Amino acid sequence: MATSAKVRRILDTLGEMFPDAHCELHHSNPFELTIAVLLSAQCTDETVNKVTANLFQKYKRPEDYLAVPLEELEQDIRRIGLYRNKAKNIQKLCQLVLDQYGGEIPQKHEQLTELPGVGRKTANVVVSNAFGVPAIAVDTHVERVSKRLGLANEEDSVLEVEKKLMRKVPRDEWTLTHHRLIFFGRYHCKAQSPQCEVCPLLDICKFGKKRMKSAPSRKNGK
């Protein structure tokens, strides 16, 4: 179990390693961010940014996405995984935003999660990055790192990980911690090749210590 001192050390270390961690999805307003996060499900931010570079030039408002046939929108995002389903959700989302919110992305979490294709993680990203509301969105990086560092249990669901992080991390640090956990998982504590040998948190990471103990036997081919 992570003590308050351990949590503080983790947060401070992440802050030292990634002081400028931020949302890497390119966007210029809440609407573009919502579309980008919707597209990012089971897809890298890098690929999403390549697609939205042209997409956001062509489609500026919800009306623009509804002005083209579904097939045309599908072709515009076909490099994205699950592009057909995402294209449908984008058009449904745009229609709902126009019908219920005057063409503006709603600011409340419960309203966001009612939009097609917008789950809890997407809503957390939008409220925190677009509207400045503290939130922790648990993606694959946040989940992996939280479990490796003992901030959550291995068997915890995504929602349980989120709740534990919200309890352990000061509320005013939620959004920054979310970004730093992502950067730590994306660039340091990777899924397949974590940099345990140079990790400043190795001494409190059960996963890392176990992996490093087995390193010599792997090198010797045992």
UniProtKB/TrEMBL annotation:
Cofactor or coenzyme needed: [4Fe-4S] cluster
Origin: domain of life: Bacteria
Example of a GO MF term: DNA binding
Cofactor remark from the record: Binds 1 [4Fe-4S] cluster.
Domain HhH-GPD as annotated: residue spans: 39-187
Residue ranges of coiled coil: none
Family matches, as InterPro entries: DNA_glycosylase, Endonuclease-III-like_CS2, Endonuclease3_FeS-loop_motif, HhH-GPD_domain, HhH_base_excis_C, HhH_motif, Nth
Residue sites binding [4Fe-4S] cluster per the record: 189, 196, 199, 205
GO biological process, one term: base-excision repair, AP site formation
Catalytic activity: 2'-deoxyribonucleotide-(2'-deoxyribose 5'-phosphate)-2'-deoxyribonucleotide-DNA = a 3'-end 2'-deoxyribonucleotide-(2,3-dehydro-2,3-deoxyribose 5'-phosphate)-DNA + a 5'-end 5'-phospho-2'-deoxyribonucleoside-DNA + H(+)
Enzyme Commission numbers on file: 4.2.99.18
Gene3D superfamilies, alphabetized: Helix-hairpin-Helix base-excision DNA repair enzymes (C-terminal) (1.10.1670.10), Hypothetical protein, domain 2 (1.10.340.30)
Keywords of the record: 4Fe-4S, DNA damage, DNA repair, DNA-binding, Endonuclease, Glycosidase, Hydrolase, Iron, Iron-sulfur, Lyase, Metal-binding, Nuclease
Family: Belongs to the Nth/MutY family.
Reported function: DNA repair enzyme that has both DNA N-glycosylase activity and AP-lyase activity. The DNA N-glycosylase activity releases various damaged pyrimidines from DNA by cleaving the N-glycosidic bond, leaving an AP (apurinic/apyrimidinic) site. The AP-lyase activity cleaves the phosphodiester bond 3' to the AP site by a beta-elimination, leaving a 3'-terminal unsaturated sugar and a product with a terminal 5'-phosphate.
HAMAP family membership: Nth (MF_00942)
Protein's name according to its UniProt entry: Endonuclease III
